């Protein structure tokens, strides 16, 4: 177990931890009847496990790990479609490292590469565009995915490609947005969430107002948080205080990085390039209205779905999860990762069966890395 | 991928395309700075710190915040991953 002494400011951390314990008590939450706080962002999930925050906070406070890891919520059908494009003659498929390992129904991109497809890992979509410049005889496709933090980077790359008239470059767009799945979770009659810790870097782009509906329409508090352990603890305390006082507000704990109105250049670039899809499939959560983005017809020349005739509306979509995989139940908070029969057995970070084991931001990978064995013994 | 990494802008590479060179933990690479530019000339960014997300400067931060964030990213293992991804991408383009 990690101790508060490891934090940069242990005295402040102890003070906040004491306040969290006190307010949890004032709310009347107990181990049997806990208060449930969801951290939306996968980066926060990773930090909570890395610093053992779930062990330092009282038993009456339970963290529910949200859907905020983009590779984890990517449906298998999209990987299948991406593999299909990658296997076309003349194509160079590019993407981020994490995305290459997500299992598809037939294979992952890394397996497709082993089987002879030209799949390359890039750090940035700008590098994919550069690759297109260097290989004018090939079609370079960038498998774009991620929440609002990475969405502007793909939009700005498309705008650059359009300005350069780079005709052998396209994006297979899988960008998704944070607010719609939160609404879907709040609309789920089985969900027992009392408040949210909001994502830091997503909010840096979109600002804090897209969360207004959480407080206004659902009466739940949300606090946008930074990534230091103390940031997270302070944010949790702010959520708990709102619950205790019967308030529901959108608060910004990470104002040193997150402007309330977000980043105007990013917002404008995204509005120019993308439009919402009617709905998009999320692994474990199903189809969610207006939760995914597609490239506007104006930029169809850079849309791999148009170029290759693949994707939404082009074929049957339902793809079953792998046998025994319970990513969906973990994602909705119905079970903890170690309760999945495949956890640590048929599914490990080295050989992931389900998407939650692929990225360090996935709940299963975090459990596995920071205490899965101990937890498994305790079950 | 989702967590940005702090970098310091050290040089302007292409003012028209709004490209600059940043230094991240001793590694230099080109990034797009459109999102952190307001009305000032691009040269005024030299020396500034920013959170870098997949090749794009997304938010200006001060030096202290940069140091704190880097520390956290190192502890999470994310900093090393980002640097390795930058290097691998550069090798791939050079090959």
Secondary structure blueprint with pairings:
The complex is a heterodimer of chains A (379) and B (95).
Chain A: H1 10-27, E1 35-41, H2 42-50, H3 53-56, E2 61-68, H4 76-86, E3 91-95, H5 97-100, H6 109-114, E4 118-121, H7 125-134, E5 139-146, H8 151-164, E6 169-175, H9 179-187, E7 195-198, H10 200-206, H11 212-218, E8 222-224, H12 229-245, E9 250-252, H13 264-273, E10 274-276, E11 279-282, E12 286-289, E13 293-295, H14 304-308, H15 327-331, H16 363-369, H17 372-378
Parallel strand pairs in A: 1-2, 1-7, 3-4, 3-5, 5-6, 7-8, 8-9
Antiparallel strand pairs in A: 10-13, 11-12
Helix pairs in contact in A: 1-12, 8-13
Chain B: E1 5-14, E2 19-24, E3 27-32, E4 49-53, E5 56-61, H1 63-76, H2 78-94
Key terms:
heterodimer, A: 379 residues, alpha/beta, 5-stranded parallel sheet, 4-stranded parallel sheet, 17 helices, 13 strands, globular, disordered C terminus, B: 95 residues, alpha+beta, SH3 type barrels, 5-stranded antiparallel sheet, 5 strands, 33% helix
Q: Could you please describe the fold and organization of this structure?
A:
Chain A is an alpha/beta fold. Chain A has a domain at about 325-379. Chain A has helices at about 10-25, 40-50, 55, 75-85, 95-100, 110-115, 125-135, 150-165, 180-185, 200-205, 210-220, 230-245, 265-275, 305-310, 325-330, 365-370, 370-379, and strands spanning about 35-40, 60-70, 90-95, 120, 140-145, 170-175, 195-200, 220-225, 250, 275, 280, 285-290, 295. Chain B has about 100 residues and is α+β, with helices and mostly antiparallel strands. Chain B has a single domain (about 5-95), classed as SH3 type barrels (Roll). The mean pLDDT of chain B is about 95. Chain B has helices spanning about 65-75, 80-95; strands spanning about 5-15, 20-25, 25-30, 50-55, 55-60. The interface of A and B includes residues 43, 68, 265 and 360 of A.
């Amino acid at each position: 177990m990690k101790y508060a002494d490891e934090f940069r400011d242990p005295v402040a951390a102890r003070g906040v931890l004491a306040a969290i314990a006190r307010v949890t008590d004032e709310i009347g939450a107990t181990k049997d009847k806990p208060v449930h706080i969801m951290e939306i962002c996968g980066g926060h999930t990773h930090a909570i496990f890395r610093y053992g925050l779930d062990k330092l906070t009282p038993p009456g406070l339970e963290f529910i790990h949200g859907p905020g890891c983009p590779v984890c919520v990517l449906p298998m059908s999209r990987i299948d479609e991406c593999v299909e494009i990658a296997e076309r003659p003349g194509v160079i498929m590019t993407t981020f490292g994490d995305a290459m390992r997500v299992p598809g129904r037939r294979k992952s991109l890394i397996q497709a590469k082993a089987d002879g497809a030209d799949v390359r890992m890039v750090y940035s979509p700008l590098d994919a565009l550069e690759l297109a410049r260097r290989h004018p005889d090939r079609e370079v496709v960038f498998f774009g995915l991620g929440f609002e933090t990475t969405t502007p980077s793909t939009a700005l790359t498309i705008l650059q490609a359009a300005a350069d008239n780079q005709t052998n470059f396209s994006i297979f767009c899988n960008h998704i947005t944070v607010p719609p799945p939160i609404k879907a979770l709040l609309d789920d009659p089985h969900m027992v969430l009392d408040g949210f810790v909001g994502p830091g870097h997503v909010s840096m782009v979109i600002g804090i107002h897209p969360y207004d509906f959480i407080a206004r329409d659902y009466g739940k508090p949300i606090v946008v948080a930074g990534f230091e352990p103390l940031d997270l603890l302070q944010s949790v305390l702010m959520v708990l205080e709102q619950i205790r006082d019967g308030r529901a507000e959108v608060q910004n704990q990470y104002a040193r990085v997150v402007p309330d109105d977000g980043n105007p250049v990013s917002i404008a670039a995204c509005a120019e390039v993308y439009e919402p899809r009617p709905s998009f499939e999320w692994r474990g959560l199903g189809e969610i209205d207006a939760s995914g983005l597609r490239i506007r017809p104006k930029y169809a020349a850079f849309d791999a779905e148009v170029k290759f005739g693949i994707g939404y509306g082009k074929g049957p979509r339902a793809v079953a999860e792998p046998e025994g995989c319970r990513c969906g139940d973990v994602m909705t908070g119905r079970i903890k990762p170690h309760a999945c029969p495949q956890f640590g057995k048929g599914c490990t970070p080295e050989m992931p069966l389900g998407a939650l084991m692929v990225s360090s931001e996935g709940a299963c990978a975090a459990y596995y890395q920071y205490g899965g064995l101990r937890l498994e013994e305790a079950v | 991928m989702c967590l940005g990494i702090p970098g310091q802008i050290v040089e302007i590479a292409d003012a028209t395309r709004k490209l600059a060179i940043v230094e991240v933990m001793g590694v230099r690479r080109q990034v797009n700075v459109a999102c952190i530019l307001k009305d000032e000339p691009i040269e005024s960014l030299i020396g500034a710190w920013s959170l870098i997300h997949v090749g794009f400067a997304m938010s200006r931060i001060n030096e202290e915040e940069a140091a704190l964030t880097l520390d956290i990213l190192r502890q999470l293992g994310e900093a090393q991953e980002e640097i390795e991804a930058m290097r691998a991408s550069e090798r791939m383009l050079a090959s």
